[in-house]
């Protein structure tokens, strides 16, 4: 492994550690706390709003910096006054600004995935990041959730492969029926 790859791996590991630590401190690994936050008509617990506000406070300066860097790199000088028309990507690291996504991104797959995620979060009180931290902290119920999550990921990968094979086997005479 080269020095650059090792450095990126160390940064990724440390970022994951800080993220896990933050989830634990914020109580996001406690399913009862999360369900209490989602139960707005019962015993609502608004404390997780502070976690969200802190996350926005940390993310916003980074997102604005990424957006500025993209504009500078596109124009070769000072940032343009108009927002970028496509998501920004800095150095291929996957950091994007999604303020101007094309409408084609909003489709049934996205909405269905969001619904499944929301229902799973509401029922279990866990989402993927906190669930992984909870498994490490031996929180009861976290391991079955993670097993189910991995099963869902594998099922999705299988369905995508099947969909791609079906699309490849269709005649391409009329492209207007493509989803």
Count the DSSP helices.
Answer: 6
Between the first and last Cα atoms, what is the distance in angstroms?
41 Å
Q: What is the radius of gyration computed over CA atoms, rounded to a whole number of angstroms?
A: 21 Å
Looking at how many chains there are and whether they match, the oligomeric state comes to single chain
Compute the number of strand runs. 0
Mean pLDDT across the residues is: 78
Please mark out the parts with pLDDT under 50 across 5 or more consecutive residues, or reply none. Answer: 84-93
Question: Which class best fits the helix and strand makeup?
Answer: mainly alpha
Inertia-based shape: globular
Helix percentage range: 55-70%
Beta percentage is under 5%
Main beta sheet, described?
Answer: none
Element pattern in H and E: HHHHHH
Structural features:
179 residues; mainly alpha; 64% helix; 0% strand
